[in-house]
Amino acid sequence: MDKRYEERSIAQDSRLLLKKADRDGVETVWDRFEHQQPQCGYCEMGLSCRICVMGPCRIDPFGEGPQRGVCGADADIIVARNLGRMIAAGAAAHSDHGRDLVEVLAAVAEGKADGYGIRDADKLMSMATEYGVATDGRDALAVAGDLAAAMQADYGTRKSELTLVRRAPEKRREVWKKLGITPRGIDRETSEMMHRTHMGVDNGWQSLLLHALRNALSDGWGGSMIATEVSDILYGTPKPTPTSANMGVLEEDQVNIVVHGHNPVVSEMVMLACQSEDLIALAREKGAAGINLAGLCCTGNELLMRHGIPMAGNHLTTELVLATGAVEMMIVDYQCIMPSLGQTASCYHTRMISTSDKARFPGMEHREFHPDNARELARTIVREAVENYDLRGEVYLPVTPVAALGGFSVEAIVGALGGTPEPLLDAIKAGKIRGAAGVVGCNNPRIKHDYGHVTLTRRLIENDILVVDTGCAAVATAKAGFKVADAIKYAGPGLKEICGALKIPPVLHMGSCVDNVRILVLASALADALGTDISDLPMAGAAPEWYSEKAAAIGCYFVASGVYTVLGPMPPITGSMNVVKLLTEGLNDAVGAAFAVEPDPEKAAVLIRRHVEEKRKRLGLDAKEV
Ligand code: SF4
Ligand code: MSK
Q1: How far apart are the CA of 528 and the centre of ligand 1, in A?
Q2: Distance in Å, CA 440 to ligand 1 centroid
Q3: CA-CA distance, 385 to 364, in Å (whole number)?
Q4: Looking at CB atoms within 10 Å, which of 34, 52, 354, 411 has the fewest?
Q5: Is 66 exposed, middle or buried (0-12, 13-18, 19+ CB in 10 A)?
Q6: How many alpha carbons lie under 13 Å from residue 604 in its C-beta half-sphere?
Q7: Phi, psi at 504, each rounded to 5°
Q8: Which ligand 1 atom lies nearest to the CA of residue 50?
Q9: 514 CB less than 6 Å from ligand 2?
């Protein structure tokens, strides 16, 4: 294997497809990353500002050139404003995704969403109770309508506190109250972040960063939490489900349809269409053995979690999946969809379909999905995918899929433990499980593809730290074979014993990016059971290969919720040592947790192990030297 491909990814399918893409003259994200070098040093440090048209401005990090923008903003202000806007964009993306789901719930209640329905009525009723919606003797659809309206109110500004904030441990809510960062409206906090960062508004770098935390909390305990819970109501709460991962999940003799993006509103309907007898019969008429649906990124994770739909790859491999030549159609919704994909697909026979009223892409056909046309439109485009099988050329599928187990919602984890979190707590108290880590987030060509996720996870489970993961991290560890019961062979003796007895893998797939909130809910349950705060738990978060604004928001709501979080790539903040110090040290005093940045996953594992042991010691549990 050419060293060039080995340096780009640890995944065999990606290496082989990178070679094929080169042979086909197809440009990839790695090529473009190379072409962009050297990237702008001012921007990397967060020291450039183009907020207004007196600028753009930049601050000289060596102290020789300008130290203030045209308006007078210094390095601290510019870095804090840039970071604040990054977090606002991430919170907006997740929360708007949540809003789309609430709108589907409302349409279901009104009977205007053919094909959608209430799949988890118990969750509908328990959520309604949390929102103060009457349930006694009421029809599920009437409750759904009122719940959708109550959730929509959480987006506005009518309240002093978001409804789901009450799920956080009491001590945590006190911390937020004292700091004045309890999230109020979901849209309000994002809107206020944009207001504060307008020229001439908030020029206190500390107050800007505090509001960034509040904005992130409005995502974690608001928009993303609503997205996850409403997805469960509409499509079912995940249960452990067998699946498989890597590009080998594409089938040489079937019509392959790949869904990519984040929102299950479209992909659920596509899945139903792929299961239609008449469309499968049409595929057979075309000479295919059937219709094979596979996922990419988080819309794939949503289908994997609930239905075991296999996963073809994660963020950096979305172009390579097209280079297999095996994909009849890729259907995208929004977020993390590279604008290059239409161009890539034009080198093959793949038809590219965009579906969201808010996301268009060059080289894609736009077929807009709404709750009232989704079922029929899904059937129409799946039919077109089947018809495209006639045009298929050379296919290159050089790997076999790796088995995995998905579907570990909090309900499923507690179910596997026998209905209460107590056995997990007992295992932690006994030191068999030292602690837990949420390994989450994206891929980024700055880090060798999948290396950060897989290496960090391997080291953590070896040292008896239970790993829960989401997003593209979860796909990386599935491909590495960490998500089968047999993967306990990679775990330390204590974790091996516990997972072996429960017949669960040492790495639990908790879902998509919005599903990071499941980790918050689990952490709250553990903290409540111990009568303590999340920041006292022997747990940590990590985003070893993050790239997106959404990941920045997730990292911030983890830390603001009390979870020590280790980032792989450095965020653009090094232009202000004040901002760096606050985020990596000062926040400990404010919220009981802080960030660390460590691109080397071996070293990141040591940081997390030390943190876990330190927390164990403080809780009066045994601690060991790391
Ligand atoms: Fe320059 Fe200030 Fe305008 Fe930013 S807000 S571009 S620093 S003048
Ligand atoms: S898809 S946000 S690259 S995890 Fe959620 Fe993956 Fe990150 Fe997108």
Answers
A1: 46
A2: 34
A3: 14
A4: 34
A5: exposed
A6: 32
A7: -125, 155
A8: 6
A9: no
Is pLDDT at 76 greater than 80 in this prediction? yes
Helix 422-429 to helix 493-502 angle, to the nearest 10 degrees? 160
Residue 369 has a pLDDT of 97
Structure tokens of 24? 């086909």
The 3-state secondary structure of 358-400 reads: CCCCCCCEECCCCCCCHHHHHHHHHHHHHHHHHHCCCCCCCCC
Among 242, 348, 247, 339, residue whose Cα is nearest residue 14: 247
Structure-token pair, residue 175: 């911390």
> In the block, which residue shows the tokens 């992909």?
267
The pair of three-digit structure tokens given for residue 96, joined into one six-digit string: 């708007």
Instruction: Answer whether 194's CB lies under 8 Å from 86's CB.
Output: no
Cβ 69 under 6 angstroms from ligand 1: yes
Identify how many contiguous H helices and E strands the chain contains and give both numbers: 27, 16
**Per-residue pLDDT tens digits for 334-345:** 999 999 999 999
d(CA 14, CA 187): 39
Q: Is 71 in the pocket of ligand 1 (CB under 6 A)?
A: yes
Please report the domains of the chain, with CATH numbers, ordered by start residue: 33-71 (no CATH), 75-235 (1.20.1270.30), 247-391 (3.40.50.2030), 406-618 (3.40.50.2030)
Is the predicted pLDDT of residue 458 greater than 90, yes or no? yes
Mean pLDDT of the chain: 97
Ligand 1 atom index nearest CA of 55: 6
Distance between CA 150 and CA 159 in Å, rounded?
11
Q: CA separation (Å) from 563 to 177, 228, 437, 491, 540?
A: 18, 20, 9, 23, 5
**pLDDT of 1 strictly over 80:** no
Q: What is the model's pLDDT at position 387?
A: 98
- Is there a contact between 391 and 493 (Cβ–Cβ < 8 Å)? no
Q: Tell which residue, 564, 549, 554, 551, has the closest CA to residue 595.
A: 564
Provide mean pLDDT across the span 216-229: 98
Are the beta carbons of 383 and 279 closer than 8 angstroms?
A: yes
**CB neighbour class for 589 (10 Å; exposed up to 12, middle 13-18, buried from 19):** exposed
Q: Report d(CA 545, CA 10) in Å as an integer.
A: 13
Half-sphere exposure of residue 231, counting CA atoms within 13 Å on the CB side?
33
Residue 22: what pLDDT? Answer: 97
pLDDT at 171 over 80: yes
